[in-house]
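Re: the 199-residue chain
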Amino acid sequence: MMASIRNMKPIAAARSIPPDVASVLAGGGPAPAGLSAKERAAFDSLDTFYKKYRAYGAMMGTRPQTIGYALTDSSVGLAAWIYDYNNGEPARLLNRDDVLDDITLYWLTNTAASAARLYWETAGQSVLLSAAQKTSEISLPVAITVFPEEVYQAPETWARRAYRNLIYFNEVEKGGHFAAWEEPELFSAELRAAFRSLR
C-alpha cells in the first residue's frame, strides 16, 4: 500500500523471508518440511496473503501509473482504494478522522501515483524477499519489532538468517501494518529500546 509520512513503518521484518520459503510461496507449493510453529504460522499467513492479494501487487508492479491516474482523478476513488486495502475496517485500528486525514494528505499533495510506484521500481521483485533486497549485505545495525496485526510476523529465526547484524528483536502485543500511525507511543518506545545500546 502507499505510505505517507504518517504511516511509515520499519521494513526490516518484512524483508526477512528466506529464499527457499519464498520460492515455495511463489510456486504455490506446500510449506517446507521442518518449520517451527512460528515459521509455519508465518508461512501460512504469507501463503494466504499471496493468494488473496496477488492481483493488487501485480497491478501496482506492472502498471502503477494506471492506478495512479484513477487515484488522482477521484477523491472518492482514492478513499475507496484505501478503505478496501484496510479490509473495510478503518476503525479497527485507526479512527475515521485519522483515515480521512491520510486520504486528504494523498489528495492534496497528489502523491497516490508516486507512492504506488515502489512496486514498479523493484522491477517486479517482491519487497518482502530477503534475497531480492540483499539483506545479507547490510552491515549496519538492524532492529525488528513484530506487530501482531501485521500481515506477516517475522519469526526471529528468519530475521537472524536475513540480517547478520540484528541487534534487537521484539514481539509486541498490539499494532499492525501501519504501526507508527496506529500505536505511535509504542512505536516510539520500540525505536528507543532498539537503538539504546548504540548511544
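The first strand starts at residue 142 and ends at 146.
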